[in-house]
Amino acid sequence: MAKGFRFTLGGIDHKLSRFDNKVERAAFAVTGFYAPKTEAWMKHNAPWTDRTTNARNGLFAAPFQRGDTVGIVLAHSVDYGIYLELGTENMAARPVIVPAMKLWGPRVMKKFIRLIDRMGK
């Protein structure tokens, strides 16, 4: 008669934790690589006519990490950026944030997928 069976993670748990940290660091590096490219694209392709260049110069893309979440924040630093993005009843929308997400998001995700594939081998 068997007395029982006991399974512990032991060293496996430690190795998985190190792998998770490695993935997070690599993912943050990917966002750090693509954030400046995205920001430059937004500044170059913003579809409005500049008056002061404050809106164009205030566009930014910044990598962030909070816990196990990694990403890129795309935003305006001027308070009227929302009106450029969405328009008003007197002004047509001139969005740059969503077009940047549509262009650069798939590129970032493709890089994430390649990264995970390489780390799994």
Q: What's the overall average pLDDT, rounded?
A: 86
Neighbour order of strands in the largest sheet: 1-2
**Number of β-strand runs:** 2
Over the alpha carbons, how many angstroms does the gyration radius reach? 22 Å
| Topology order in helix (H) and strand (E) letters | HHEEHH
Query: Which residues form runs of ≥5 with pLDDT under 50?
Result: none
Provide the number of structural domains. Answer: 1
Strand composition percent: 5-15%
- Count of DSSP helices? 4
What helical percentage do the residues reach?
55-70%
For the largest beta-sheet, the strand count, sense and barrel status come to: 2 strands, antiparallel
User: Which structural class should the secondary elements be placed in?
Assistant: mainly alpha
Cα(first) to Cα(last) distance is: 41 Å
Which geometry do the CA atoms define?
elongated
Concise summary:
The protein has helices at residues 11-45, 54-57, 81-86, 97-120; strands spanning 60-66, 69-75.
Tell me what you see in this structure.
The chain has 121 residues and is mostly helical. It has one domain (25-120). It is built from four helices and two strands. The chain has a two-stranded antiparallel ribbon. The protein is elongated and about 55 Å long. The mean pLDDT is 86.
